[in-house]
């Protein structure tokens, strides 16, 4: 069941951002896209991205084109007033004035709206309220917010460098057993492991390693991908996160992409972005990564999975 949380002010909207993204924002830009009074997309951007404003404009235009009567709420988080004001000014030029619900800079303690006319925004700003009724409703509904994006990135980390050396030796035997299977048998084995372990809270490391290596074969990887659905996304996300946790860097990319796909279907765009950020550092030319990055950058809704399935 979907819980409706009402935000009746800018203060409410700011207080909800950590629960929309899954973590507390520090020195970043956030764009909330609203359609029919509902937040459809919450997207974080780095300040350096605005060094190429045309790319940001194209991304925002594509994102807004997906929703009827789309409006935007811009938020620049920074201790540097001039930096925040400059980025907000650029964003405001990308859309029509009537499409901007608000354009706000905040240092995390107080906020100032660029749309204020007259005395609505005092020089000292308005206080942020991290314990607003909207936040209380979000917490009751089961939403959580980590302390920072760095904490979110820990969810996509693999084993330590020390552990990777031991795991690589252990994985050699698993690779040899997989190599003796036919491609069809590898796909069947992948489906069998998913059927047996999907939904488990603590999957055995040996199973995770086998799944991670099976996913290096594109037919088996795609078979695992096609098993995903929006209804079961949380189970797939939990499973592939466990796989990622035991895969050394040289084997991690397919599992990370499957984790990103499951995060997207679960509506967790922030975690999807973290998965893709790690993949980009490992193999930016990987085909599935290229597709998922386009999905992420355009803020494509999970409802599009039915269309993407046909292309897999």
Indicate the overall shape: elongated
Return Rg in Å: 21 Å
Q: Roughly what is the average pLDDT, rounded to an integer?
A: 92
What share of residues are in beta strands? 5-15%
Helix/strand-derived class? alpha+beta
Point out poorly predicted stretches. Answer: none
Strand order of the largest sheet: 2-1-3-4-5-6
Describe the structure.
It is a single chain. The longest helix has 19 residues. A hairpin with a 2-residue loop joins strand 1 and strand 2. This protein is 53% helix and 11% strand. Helix 6 packs across helix 8 and helix 11 runs parallel beside helix 13. It has 14 helices and six strands. It has a six-stranded mixed sheet, with helices on both faces. It is α+β, with helices and mostly antiparallel strands.
Features:
312 residues; alpha+beta; 6-stranded mixed β-sheet; 14 helices; 53% helix; elongated
List the helices and strands and how they pair.
Layout (H helix, E strand, L loop, with lengths): L9 H12 L7 E7 L2 E8 L7 H12 L6 E7 L3 H13 L6 E7 L3 E4 L12 E2 L5 H8 L8 H5 L7 H19 L3 H15 L7 H10 L3 H9 L6 H14 L2 H17 L3 H15 L3 H11 L7 H5 L3
Parallel strand pairs: 3-4
Antiparallel strand pairs: 1-2, 1-3, 4-5, 5-6
Helix pairs in contact: 1-4, 6-8, 7-9, 8-10, 10-11, 11-12, 11-13, 12-13
What's a quick, concise take on this entry?
A hairpin with a 3-residue loop joins strand 4 and strand 5. The chain is elongated. By secondary structure, it is an alpha+beta fold.
């Amino acid at each position: 069941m979907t819980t409706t949380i009402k935000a009746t002010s800018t203060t409410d909207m700011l207080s909800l951002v950590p629960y929309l993204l899954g973590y507390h924002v520090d020195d970043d830009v956030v764009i909330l896209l609203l359609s029919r009074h509902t937040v459809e997309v919450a997207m974080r951007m780095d300040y350096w991205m605005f060094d190429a404003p045309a790319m940001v404009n194209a991304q925002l235009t594509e994102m807004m084109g997906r929703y009827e009567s789309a409006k935007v709420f811009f938020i620049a988080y920074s201790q540097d007033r001039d930096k925040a004001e400059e980025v907000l000014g650029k964003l405001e030029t990308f859309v029509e004035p009537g499409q901007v619900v608000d354009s706000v800079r905040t240092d995390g303690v107080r906020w100032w709206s660029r749309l204020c006319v007259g005395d609505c925004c005092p020089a000292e700003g308005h206080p942020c309220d991290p314990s607003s009724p909207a936040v209380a409703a979000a917490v009751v509904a089961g939403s959580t917010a980590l302390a920072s994006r760095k904490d979110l990135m820990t969810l996509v980390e693999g084993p330590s460098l020390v552990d990777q050396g031991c795991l690589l030796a252990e994985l050699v035997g698993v690779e040899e057993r997989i190599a003796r299977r036919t491609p069809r048998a590898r796909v069947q084995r992948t489906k069998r492991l998913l059927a047996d372990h999907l939904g488990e809270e603590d999957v055995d490391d040996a199973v995770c390693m086998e799944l991670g290596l099976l996913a290096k074969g594109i037919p088996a990887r795609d078979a695992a991908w096609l098993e995903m659905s929006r209804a079961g996304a949380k189970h797939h996300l939990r499973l592939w996160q466990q796989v990622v946790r035991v895969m050394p860097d040289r084997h991690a990319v397919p599992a990370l992409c499957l984790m990103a796909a499951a995060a997207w279907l679960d509506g967790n765009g922030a975690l999807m972005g973290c998965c893709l950020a790690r993949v980009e550092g490992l193999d930016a030319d990987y085909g599935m990564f290229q597709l998922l990055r386009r999905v992420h950058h355009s803020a494509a809704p999970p409802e599009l999975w039915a269309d993407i399935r046909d292309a897999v």
